[in-house]
Amino acid sequence: MKTKTVIIRNSKKNLEFVASLLIKGEVVAIPTETVYGLAGRADNSKVIRNIYKIKNRPFSNPLIIHYKNIEEALDSIIIDKRAKIITSKFWPGPLTIVARKKNNYVSDSATANLKTVAIRVPSHPDLKTLLHLLDFPLAAPSANIYGKISPTCAHDVKEELNGKISTILDGGKSRIGLESTVIDLTENKTKILRHGSITELKLKNILGDIEYNNKVKKIKSPGQVLSHYKPNKKVIIDAKKPITNEAWLGFGPIPKYFKGPALSLSKNRCLQEAAKNLYSMLRILDKKKSNIIVIQKIPKKGIGIAINDRLFRASSN
Ligand code: TXA
Ligand code: MG
User: Fold this and answer.
1) pTM, whole model, 2 decimals?
2) Does ligand 1 come within 6 angstroms of the Cβ of 225?
3) Which residues lie below 8 Å from residue 42, measured CB to CB, with a gap of 6+?
4) How far, in Å, CA of 202 to CA of 211, rounded?
5) CB distance 183 to ligand 1 below 6 Å
């Protein structure tokens, strides 16, 4: 039977209600500062299996575990000097660290039976409040069907998961709009597994040498799968100007001559604004009458590196 999916606002009463659902072992959609997450208690394998099932995600792709504070998060891993340094600088916030898992209560299904675990302490105020109402951490992948675009508002979660979950907690539009940066601390060599708003440059300034690991043979992160973050339409990137018969996603003002469906990620060419708008605008253009979405070239600096990474994957077959 299909479940009725409702969006509820972020009142204190509703946060308590969502906490009660999570305690009972339900899977619910929650806001984070990056993208919306599909959350369940990290200590229960049945709940975790349900998350994978709802997302249609392969069981081999581990989830991120969200903690209420730095102490609890670091207590779940074999501590490493690098982890202490970067988490004191960037948590709470959009950084995920992969480190060696300590023997603890996080379900092995959540970490795909690996000896490592991905953890983060989010900064979204509603999620922080929610985590403080719970005595377990939350496993939460992005709240999209596997391979599709992550949702950045409650309405977009409903579009993805209608009938599959009972409750979506509305915490407004995600402030950042792209998934967290994932950094791998499991080996001596520090690696970035997924680009995000905490850039490689910012991390290098603190940790020194880091490599970006997108050419690995064995995939360590599903975000590394080439074809990912995909709309239904074909996507063309790095375009100079709109031509005809296409849906245009600009970076800067939309040229007056173009009469097709068009949106601008940021009229003032602000990369932060573009990141925040990217996924929701791709969803809007995906519904327009045209066969392709053509996207204007976006500078590969700062968060523009993460934007280009997602767009490259969205445009890959
Ligand atoms: O911003 C975010 O990180 C969002 C919000 C909801 O927190 N979550 C998110 O989760 O993007 P997900 O499942 O879509 O992406 C998790 C990423 C994947 O690339 C996954 O492979 C990686 O983290 N990951 C998790 N555990 C790992 C591990 N043990 N080793 C390597 N990569 C891991
Ligand atoms: Mg995801």
Assistant:
1) 0.96
2) no
3) 48, 63, 65, 105, 106, 107, 110, 136, 137, 138, 139
4) 13
5) no
pLDDT in tens, the chain (317 residues): 689 999 999 999 999 999 999 999 999 999 999 999 999 999 999 999 999 999 999 999 999 999 999 999 999 999 999 999 999 999 999 999 999 999 778 999 999 999 999 999 999 999 999 999 999 999 999 999 999 999 999 999 999 999 999 999 999 999 999 999 999 999 999 999 999 999 999 999 999 988 887 654 455 555 566 777 889 999 999 999 998 889 999 999 999 999 999 999 999 999 999 999 999 999 999 999 999 999 999 999 999 999 999 999 999 97
Q: How far is the CA of 87 from the centre of ligand 1 (A)?
A: 17
CB of 214 closer than 6 A to ligand 1? no
Residue 303 in contact with ligand 1 by CB distance below 6 A: no
